[in-house]
Specification:
By secondary structure, this protein is of the alpha+beta class. It contains 4 helices and 3 strands, in the order αββααβα. It has a 3-stranded mixed beta sheet.
Length: 126
C-alpha cells in the first residue's frame, strides 16, 4: 500500500468509527469494532473489516445494517475528506478475532490437560 492509501484508510477508519459510535441509530448494528480498512490503489473502493460481538444472527444483522448505512457513511466521508472521489464502502466481517479466541481456547485446554509421566526405556540387562 502506498503512503497515500494508508493515510486515506486511516482517515476512513477513524471517521467511520466515530459516526457508528455517535450518529448511526440503526437498531440492527450491535457491538461493532472496525479492525482495519483496505483501500484500493485507485481509491475507488474501501473494504472495511469489522469485528462483531454476539450470535451469528446478530453478526449478520450488524453487517446488513452497516451495508445499508454505507451510502450515508460515504456522504459523511465526502464532507470530511478533501478528495475528488470518495471510495465506495464494503463491510466485511473480520474473522481474525474469532480465530484468535479459538487458538486461545485450544492453548488453555492443552495447559489443563495433565501431562503423562515419562517412562524409562526397558533395559536389556534383565
Amino acid at each position: 500500500m502506498s503512503r497515500r492509501t494508508e493515510r486515506v484508510a486511516h482517515l476512513i477508519h477513524r471517521e467511520i468509527g466515530d459516526v457508528i459510535l455517535k450518529e448511526l441509530t440503526d437498531s440492527r448494528i450491535g457491538f461493532v469494532t472496525i479492525s482495519r480498512v483496505e483501500v484500493t490503489t485507485d481509491m475507488a473502493f474501501a473494504k472495511v473489516f469489522v469485528s462483531v460481538m454476539g450470535t451469528d444472527k446478530q453478526k449478520r444483522d450488524s453487517l446488513v445494517g452497516l451495508s445499508h448505512s454505507a451510502s450515508y457513511l460515504r456522504t459523511h466521508l465526502a464532507k470530511v475528506m478533501k478528495m475528488r472521489t470518495v471510495p465506495r464502502l464494503q463491510f466485511v466481517e473480520d474473522k481474525n478475532l474469532d480465530h484468535g479466541f479459538r487458538i486461545n481456547e485450544i492453548l488453555n485446554e492443552i495447559k489443563r490437560t495433565p501431562k503423562a509421566e515419562p517412562t524409562e526405556p526397558a533395559s536389556d540387562d534383565e
